[in-house]
């Protein structure tokens, strides 16, 4: 068994390493924060009253993933957030969250806001899906 590689010193191909494994750090003593994942879909009158677009309440018809992360005793300036296509990596001095997302997202289109009074970071990410009979936009 030989692996064809441009660099003779590599022992595996990049295809063999699962996406997001570079973030795994089992020895990190920081606590995992509480979080909640919800889905959001954009509906109009054609969906609510007429059912013309074929959307249903399932996650298959949702356009956005909303992740709310509780970060007590944290300042906005202490938060480091990295979003990849299938992974969310959040780090603060006291907390660390490595979250494998349920759907691939567009890592360039997203927004995050820190609700300081509630001590919650709210991250909204656009789901990246192939076009089908439901997701045609």
From TrEMBL:
Task: Name any one GO molecular function.
Answer: protein-folding chaperone binding
One GO cellular component from the entry?
cytoplasm
Q: Where is the composition biased (Acidic residues)?
A: 16-26
Which residues does the UniProt record annotate as the domain PIH1D1/2/3 CS-like? 32-127
Biological process (GO) annotations held by this record are: axonemal dynein complex assembly; flagellated sperm motility
What residue spans carry the region label Disordered?
Answer: 1-27
List, alphabetically, the Pfam families matched.
PIH1_CS
- The organism's superkingdom is given as Eukaryota
Q: What protein family does this chain belong to?
A: Belongs to the PIH1 family.
Q: What is this protein called?
A: PIHD3 protein
According to its UniProt entry, this protein's organism is Motacilla alba
